[in-house]
Amino acid sequence: MMKSGERIGVHSHIKGLGIRNNEPLPVADGLVGQIEARRAAWLVVQLIKAGKMAGRAILLVGPPGTGKTAIAVAIARELGPETPFMALSGSEIYSAELKKTEVLMQALRKSIGVRIRERRWIYEGVVDKVDYKFDRHPLNPYVQVPVGGTITLRTEKETRSLRVDSNIVYQLLQKGVEEGDVIWIDEETGRVTRVGRAKGAANYDVGVRELVDVPSGPVYKEKEFVYTLTLHQLDEMHARSESLLSLIFGAPEYREIPPDVRAKVDKTVKEWVDSGRAELIPGVLFIDDAHMLDIEAFSFLSRAMESELSPIIILATNRGFTKIRGTDVEAPHGMPLDLLDRLLIIKTKPYTADEIREILKIRAKEEGVTLDEQALEELVRLGTERSLRYAAHLLAPAKILAEQRGKSSVGVEEVREVSTLFISTRESAQYLKEFEEKMLK
C-alpha cells in the first residue's frame, strides 16, 4: 500500500526482464507481454555481459505506450543493482547554457560508475569516555573554545585512550558524539565518522539513532572502504580543485568540463583499475524521443560508441519516416542510415486487452488503488479504445474521488466520471476540430 506523500515512479515496479530458464514469462518482474522484445533484450544483456557490444547500440521502436522505456529500465536492472542508469530526452540536449555535445558527454559520463576500493588506517570503537579541554578564545576572552582532549575507545578485544587535537574535538561536538556511540577516526585526515549507537548502550526508550554491533578486533586497524562515483562526479571534483580562480576569488564553477580535465580523470581511473584499486561499472544511457536529436548529435553518438569508456547506449523512438533534424533528408525514424546500420533494433507492439488488464493491476497495486471488477474492466476498455497511458492516468484521480465519497475501493462510477473530466488525446483532437475557428493560431 502506498503511504501518504510517497512518490511512485512510472517504472518503479520493474525489477528485470522477467526471464526464467532463458524464456520470458507472460507476466514477471513488473513486465507484461512484449515477449519478442523481451527475448531480444535478454540476448542483448548476454552480449553486454560477454563484452561483445563494443561499437554498437540499441534502438527500441514502436508506437507510444508500448513499453520502450520499461524495457530499457529492465535491461539496466538485469545488469545489476549498482548499474548506473541515466535517462535523457532527445530535446534536452538543446540547452541555452551548454553545447549539445557537452550535454551528451556529461550524460555519457554520468552513465559510467567507478567502484573505488580504499584501505585506510583508522581508530574504531565504542566511546567509553570523553574528556574535553577548553581555553579562552585568543581574540575573545569571554568565549571558551576546545583546545584538545582525551577519548577512550573500546572494542570487544581492547580498550584504548587517545589524545586528540582541537579539530577532532570540534567534529565530536558538532556530530553530537556521546558515550556509547561507535565512531571511526581516520588516522591520516582526522575525519570523524559516527557509525551509530552501540547495542546495549541505549539510554532512551525511543530514539532515532541506528543501533550497531560493538566492533571486534583492535581499536587501531586497517579497514577497506568501498564507494562508487560516476566519471562525471570525478570530472567535477577535478575541475573544482584545479580552478584556483574559483577557490580564491569565488568565481563560478565550470559549467562545461575542460577536455584536459576529463583526460586526466580517464588517466587516473585507468591507473586505479590497473592497480586493482578500482573497477569500472558501465551503465546505461537511455535517450528517449531520439528522433529529436540532430545530425551533429547523431555524429557525436556514433563516435562515442567506439570509445573505450562508453556506456550501453539505448535509443527509443515512436516515429516512422521523418526528416533528420538539421537536414532535409528523410530517413527511417529520423536517423542517419550509417548510424542505423550500427544499431540492434528491437520492435515493440501494441498491448492486447488481457495485457492491458495485467498492467493496470500492477499500476493499481503500486499506487495503492483498490479497484472493483467493473472499474477494472472499464479501465481496460478505455485503455484499448484510447490508450494504456490514458487509462493508467485515471487511477489516481479515481481513487481521490472514491475517498471523498467515503468508499474504500474505486468503482465504475468513479472511473466513468473522471474519464469525462479528463479527456484523451483523441478526444482533444476532436475538440480542436470542433472549435477550430475560436482557437488562437
From TrEMBL:
The keyword Metal-binding does not apply. Residues 54-363 form the AAA+ ATPase domain. The keyword Iron-sulfur does not apply. Its EC number is 3.6.4.12. Transmembrane segments: none annotated. It holds the Pfam family TIP49. InterPro entries: AAA+_ATPase (IPR003593), NA-bd_OB-fold (IPR012340), P-loop_NTPase (IPR027417), RuvB-like (IPR027238), RuvB-like_C (IPR041048), RuvBL1/2_DNA/RNA_bd_dom (IPR042487), TIP49_P-loop (IPR010339). It comes from the Archaea. GO terms for molecular function: ATP binding; DNA helicase activity; hydrolase activity. Keywords: ATP-binding, Helicase, Hydrolase, Nucleotide-binding. Belongs to the RuvB family. This is DNA helicase. It comes from Thermofilum pendens (strain DSM 2475 / Hrk 5).
